[in-house]
Amino acid sequence: MSKKEFTALLIFISILSCRPQNSNKREVLVGGPCEGCEAIYEYGDMRLSSTDTLPEFKTTEPKLKITGTVYQNDGKTPASNVILYVHQTNRKGIYPTKGNEKGWARRHGYIRGWVKTGEDGKYTFYTFRPSSYPDRSEPEHIHLTVKEPDKNEYYVDSFVFDDDPLLTKSNRARLDNRAGSGIISPVFQNGILVAERDIILGLNIPDYE
Length: 209
Ligand SMILES: [Fe+2]
Description:
The chain is an alpha/beta fold. The protein has helices at residues 3-18, 105-108, 169-173; strands at 51-53, 63-71, 83-88, 112-116, 122-128, 141-147, 154-161, 183-184, 187-189, 192-196, 199-200. The radius of gyration is 22 Å and the shape is globular. The site of fe (ii) ion (FE2) has 2 residues, from strand 6.
């Protein structure tokens, strides 16, 4: 073997060893690709419980309580240890930042929260009704991401408001109903809007098994 051939052989071997193991296995993401879903891990040292109160709840109107039950894919069995992450705009329709944010908070802003369900699958967020973007290009919405044990995180339909004039017929027709419908109909109870939404894991989620 000439020196040239030996060098070529070495290069060939090093290329082979760089190939990932199981390269024939394609990793399928539950729910498809999702930009920013990793923000669900940005709760830091917060101890998650089934209830969370978002920043500026106390000082902002109209206050909103969103509550419901997370169910397994059968739609009946309460799902425990499921993390839900929400983020939303403020009353000006922007995702406000303080300037010192790291990670996805730079885009999602600080009006966000996390819960983790217990045995009964129940969850509650105390927040306020967001506003639509200043250009009114989208209905008012609260983004929602889910992380259940043994699955990658995935986004589900945002909370949107049945009485929002921007939630048009064509808008409604485009909804995917991921994890069930996100359309909520809050009612005033003791000075706070209360809305219910149950979440069915995996419902209308691509590649969910
Ligand atoms: Fe948004």
